[in-house]
Amino acid sequence: MNKELRRVSFVVLAMFVALLVSSTYITAFQADSLRADSRNYRTLLASYSAQRGPILVDGQPVAQSVPVDDVYEFQRTYPSAELYAPVTGYYTLGQGSRGIEDSMNDYLTGNANAQFFDQVNSVLTGQDPEGATVNLTIDPAVQQAAYDALGDNSGAVVAVDPSTGAILAMVSKESYDPNLLASHDRDAVKASYDQLVADPGDPLQNRAIQGDLYAPGSTFKLVTTAAALESGDYTPDSEFPNPATLTLPGTSTNINNAEGGSCGGGETATLATALRLSCNIPMAQLGQQLGADALQEQAEAFGFGDDSIAIPQAVTPSQFPITDEDGDPISDASLMLQSFGQGSDRVTPLQMAMVSAAIANGGTQMDPTLVESVLNPDLSPVRDFSPTEYGEPISADTASTMTDMMVQDVADGAASNARISGVDVAGKTGTAENGPGDPYTLWFTGFAPAVDPQVAVAVVVENGGGQGQSAFGNSVASPIAKKVLEAVLNR
């Protein structure tokens, strides 16, 4: 009998231990994920009954909570809906969240670890809980200029302060109205969400930092040029053979320069001329000479392949692959294509803005960020967002040399439509091919002024800007960038 009792006691004890361990594990390790689960109705009720903190641009709310007479107590509203949707994102009943609403959710709801004592104080004083205020780095005039300049095109614009990494503008089109997703009618929210997901224009995708990414076209020549100068084996005056057509090794594929003919008309073309006139053939030869490892190393120094970049929204890593789908090293033909931004290269507009910003900032690249500060309801600081350094992808000498080369690109080269009277603008265009008969992807990236730069920008326009294969980066993307640059310079 005692033996049977011991067995029962052991089983009961084991059950209590299992219950203790599982409850401790849930409390200690799964609390955050369970609280964030969109199916957690109690969490949703609690988050809506607390006054969610506002998201501010230059002191004005671009997302805020207002009192309403229903079970949720507060309604999230977005005063400048489509203009800021890629930045704010949305916060919904049952369909999750995106953007700053998602990445800064703990602060906006007042549940971040840094707000623990404020939570305790609310309980002790009986005050209604409030979330923190998130102040963004966005400049409203620059954001509006970028939004207006992009017009009806699908694409994105990113503007960054090179010295701090502060994002001054981030526009993505097609955009959407997050107010449609903030309703307290769950069926209406789901219907609006499903409609947006089904939209072929993919408005929920923030093209500036995420999605399927883009072929960078000739904007990648900045990376190739940087790798060449950093190697110490090349200068702007380094010369390359200058045929009008080049057959890629091991293939029957011919490549040409964008304007047709040779690069500048001479028997040879310098690196400076190749960048200024955006010539493909000299860059392909340069890429082959440098080798895949050197190019990948330079690309990674600028941030390619880094899945830890967050603004604080997660940023899809840009890609410069040096192996094929089978894991084998890419061929010389593929490397030569990738050296001028074709082949398997894929980038975000933010990545190309980071490349220009590093050049503008003397070779020092800053961490990009959308958040300037987080403040408690009493205006006390919650978290420090001081500028931080990402790395030094190029030397100061290389940055200076590349600045001069990019200034010539705008003053007397392939990026001429970005010229601003009385200002030296540094820039690089791109016209990326996407397959036979497919519209081009059009680019500009650069900064201004060339001396003591205030802003670096990247512009991408999909579908050839509505002109198929008839338009170039200089004809479509450069004028958009010019308006954004002017908005900063005229502040």
What is the element layout, followed by pairings?
Elements: H1 2-36, H2 41-49, E1 55-57, E2 60-67, E3 74-77, H3 81-88, H4 99-103, H5 105-108, H6 116-125, E4 133-136, H7 140-150, E5 155-160, E6 167-173, H8 186-198, H9 221-231, E7 239-241, E8 245-247, E9 254-256, E10 268-270, H10 271-276, H11 280-290, H12 292-302, H13 332-339, H14 349-360, E11 365-366, E12 371-375, E13 381-383, E14 389-391, H15 396-412, E15 426-432, E16 441-448, E17 455-461, H16 473-489
Helix pairs in contact: 7-16, 9-11, 9-12, 11-13
Which features would summarize this protein structure in a list?
five-stranded antiparallel beta sheet; alpha+beta; 17 strands
Describe this structure in words.
The protein has a six-stranded mixed beta sheet with strand order 3-2-1-4-12-13. Strands 6-5-17-16-15 form a five-stranded antiparallel beta sheet, with helices on both faces. With 491 residues, the protein is of the alpha+beta class. α7 (140-150) runs antiparallel to α16 (473-489), α9 crosses α11 and α9 (221-231) packs across α12. It has helices spanning 2-36, 41-49, 81-88, 99-103, 105-108, 116-125, 140-150, 186-198, 221-231, 271-276, 280-290, 292-302, 332-339, 349-360, 396-412, 473-489, and strands spanning 55-57, 60-67, 74-77, 133-136, 155-160, 167-173, 239-241, 245-247, 254-256, 268-270, 365-366, 371-375, 381-383, 389-391, 426-432, 441-448, 455-461. The mean pLDDT is 91.
* Main sheet specs: 6 strands, mixed
Q: What is the radius of gyration?
A: 26 Å
Strand fraction equals 15-25%
Number of discrete helical segments:
16
The mean pLDDT is: 91
Residue runs with pLDDT of under 50 for 5 or more positions: none
